[in-house]
Give the backbone structure.
Amino acid sequence: MDEIGIDIDVKDYADENEYVDQNEYVKQNDEKSRNVPESVENMNYKAKTTYIGISPDGSIVATFNLLKSLITIKKIAKNEEYDMGPKEIVTIPVEMNKFFDSNFFDSKSFFDKKPQNILGWSLAVSDIIDEDLGFVAISCITEDDMNPKGIDNADLILIVFDLIKQALQRFIKVFIHYCLVIFFILYILFVSLPIPWSVTLLCLVVLINLFYLIRLCTSYYITNRGDVDQFRLPWISSKGMTRIYKFSFSDEYNPSVHAYINGHVRLGGIINFLKDSKHSLKNCAILVCTNYIKIQKIIIKLKGGSKVSEEVAFLLPENLFEELKGIKDAKRNWDYLLKSSHQEFLMVDTNYNKQIHNIELYNVNTAQLVNVFHRNRNNSLTSKNNEPGAFAISTDSRLLAYSYRDNIITLYLMESGIEIVSKKIDNISKIKYLEFIEKDKKLLIVEDVKEGDVKFHVWLLSGCLNDYFDISRENIDSSYNISILSNYNTITKANGKVVFCNDMDDNGQFEVVREINIERTTFGENDIVTDEYEYISRDLEPWNVNGSTFRGRFLNNDKRYLLIIGQNSIQLWKSKSLNFIDFNNFKDFDNSDLIYILINDDLETEKKSDAKFQIDDDMTTIISHACKSLAYLHKHDSNINKEKRQKFVGGITNIIKDFIDRYPDNWKLMEVQYPLMAYLIYSRSFSLIKHILFENETLHRPQSKYVSYPHYVDLKLYGDFDDDHSSKSGSLEDNVTNDLELALNFDEDQDSVMLAYLLEYYSENAMNHYGWMINVTKILSKLPTDYSKSLFYKPCFGGIKSNFLNKRFKSLSDSLNLKVHLPVTWLIEAKSLNFFKYKTIRNEELPNIYVVPFSFSTFDNNSKVEKHSEKGFISNFLNWLRKLLFPHSFDILSEKEFSPFLQIKNVDSFFDVPVIETFLTSRWPETKIYWMVPLVLYAIFLYLFSILSEIYLDDSTETDKYSARNLITVIIFYYVGIYLLLIEFMQILKYGMEYYYNIFNVFDMCSFICGLVVFTFIFAKSFNENNGINNEGIVILITITTLILWIEVLLWLRLFTGLATYIYIFGSIIVKIIPFFVFFIVLTISFGHSMYVLFRHPTLLDLGASPQTFTLFDGTQNLTLTGQPPNNPFDTIWDAILSAYNWGTTDLSNFSYWPLKLFGFAGNVIIVLILLNMIIALMSDTFTKAKEDGNLGIMMFRNELIYDYERLDNPLLSSKSIINNSLYICFNRDSDSMKSWIEKCDKIKETTLYSWFNESVDKDIIVYDKVHIKEWYARISGDENQELATDNDDLWF
């Protein structure tokens, strides 16, 4: 084993175990103490002498030995990317008292003096970063790092200063992106408005910002005490320190010259190098230091002399912080954090005294919650004495193994959080340690024995029957040092390698366990020579057109089992009676059970006469081969007689069904390792799929990608599928990645029942955990409408009761019917203003908090990261300038990169579904902020149109129309108008003719064009009065344009929920009363036209109106005056219609023609009395319904804007936003607001998605021998003497 050493003179040291008297320690280690530097003897010591660390990829192990003052780095595996260099040993002398010296490395000291109360040390080593260079880090941990004192003494002035600094940084960031808009606003304030108005508005803006700061400071004091304590912690100076050294395995490496790095971190804690760096810089390593105070990410760059810089820091998850706060002991807190962290993962397992039994797992690298895992409630009956459970994560981060440190292990799928299986091991008392080994094929279990000893156990995860083994010392490979494995004090692990170290040993010896060889019984033929018999029959291989000769022999001369080797199949049959009499006694399904079959065109080696039949992994091999054989039979369906094919299908189905019924837990393990459901879907095994999904416990687990299955390549999954059944848009391999997509691909005729089965199964189980819907989310937009209508009214779409450990949420404004919250599913940044945005939901509200049953981690524009970060300054500046001066362009993104709800084309039909409203509300805040900029620009456009129209239409010579100020204002007007017009043109380019289908889009376009064109006429006329432009026409155009522009303002105000509601109510009322208006207009026209005809011939009807007469007394006599004859109100057809419309004010008293009087009375009754009351009643009823339609209109509007926003190349739309970082969305469930959805849900709650399908498979064609088949399971598992299980028993669990 190649190694290098880094020699360190240890001057000051204290360890992590119990303190012992220094003199007693030296007395017990007299010989060792002679080599200890003098300054070491002045310190109190603990018993531990060696620390150990392993690189993330498991290729390097580092040990730090105190007494020998030595860091030793050993290669234990090859690095897949770099050649780590030749063998070499290097020592670097470092005086430990300079570890805390202010002159060390010519940089500022971490301490002005040596720290007190040192708790211990932590060691970490990185992978090879570049060529053959890597880093090793040592962290000094003090008691104040794990249980700080004096939180109340944090510098409040410094805290307020930092908060103000952050507020200013945010303002500058906003200013950089929107400086042009801000300039326009300021220009209008100071140029176009009077000075008093400008000053008043500016003062108002300043007051608003002061109010924001005051509210911020107030939030600090009104927050509960626990929040304040955690918020203050990052401002407390750490007493610990972390130093980083550079190492290399090359010959050129000189430790005394190259090992030192100009940098250190004033922080002590548990340190780890991260495996997968998400940092944009190359040739760097990320070190994470975790303590009670915070989680600090540290960037170490190779470029420029290996510089160290602190990146971002995070607070501990709240529940973990509260747990540590309750312990109040530094050493126990250190131990708790050690057991809660592994590589980049941090586990929160603190709620065993509460009703909710969950585990939360965070990824420190991404600062995101990985998932929530439901813990078995039976496991929470025992006390852990403030100790987290033991957990392990597979090397591919696919599986999580967890134990409550009793004798039960639970396996989970990481991507969904769903439990796979729980295994109780009776001969284990307490599990101490877990780790996946041998490419995640095995789980190593370390048992803590009461006497202080340990035992080793192995669990095979393939799903085989014989899956558990005790590993005694005699069974451990002789290459391992048994004394180290049995007497270790420290364990570390990475990438499937477990390192055991005796930290009490001066030599720092360790042992790496990569594999544990287990002797397993392989079922198959032995060396006993058996007679062969030749069968000539097509019944044994009905899928082959040409008959062939079959070789048959009794397996190892055991007449219970007959092995048949055919042209392209291997079959094993078991007699239904005790034994076969002879070869001729075999009558296939009539007197035998098919217990193994593999049909494959590539069985050349198995057909050789000297080839032995072997089954390596007992029932795992049998079941996977059975599923492959079903796929083969379907693939060659056209060549097989239906009756003969059904026999084999029935026989294979019975193999699988019987195993599932007897060993459901083994099936669960098999199905997460092998894509078995894919074969069943492809082979159209309807009855078997239904049996797995609905006739047993939850056996099937969804996984998002076939390529994530460990044995995906071994099975050659897509190679077993027929190209003729490929996806409608390409090959299956290119378009199908999981079981649900495969079923959707076969959504034709009766095959569509498989899709219905899966959707029903997932939606039912989703009420227990959100993870069941991970694949449903991806295909929502592809589902046929009939499926969507039924699926969206399943109970899970009304939300799932929240059971998050963290009760802190970000509440969103602009909610419609349902109040929406975002649970804090990310690590909160330390010293951040955002801390006070997250409020704790009161206990009385928690029962009404529900969760949308989808995870949004994979859809939230994770690809939208600023791509210009690695470009030069000029490129970044030009990119910023482009985005500043022009509207943001649309990114070229596929539909898969959007949230599934935005991909649904007919989403308008499902806006009453609670989860859709909740989703749109969650996406709205960022969208609204973005579209507020065009709204402000439009307000500027309207304002400038108004004042510029007045200026350039004014004939007064006192106004200087062509002053620099006015011309600049004109330029701004044209720029803003063209900017808004470009937004519309970009939408036209993106959506094509679909853009014109929306009348609001057309109105937007018309308003901008009208404003620009009309002002252009005005501006042109101001230069030449005789240019032919009519003044009257200009005024009319301005009038109409002004009205259009103000209507457009109303449309823009839809961004605000309150105003949008009334706008859509108005629009909804107009739409609903249009039929009445049509009726009213037709009726009015009919009366008007009738009266026009009547008054058209007055001389024929004696319809002349008598002129009015007046009597005037002049003092001597009465004078009679005769007025003009009254005008005919129905003189023309248009006058007649208008008079009919104003029937109540039309005076017919001057006409004495009695039919006209009768006609007038009828008009008054019908038009004035009846129609007026009709419209009053109609409006009252319509308003109530219009409120519901108003909410529908708002959601449709938001859906359009959100869809546009998430397509934009927008620098503010990044993965760092709160919305995009939210893994889940919660809401307050309001039964009144959800009334419509609940009613529809109740109507179809008893109807399954597959109720239309009438299964016609004859299950009685093949009957399995339920009694005698038990001995087959005993034999295949390698223990024929064991007690046979009953039908529902499990041989092993």
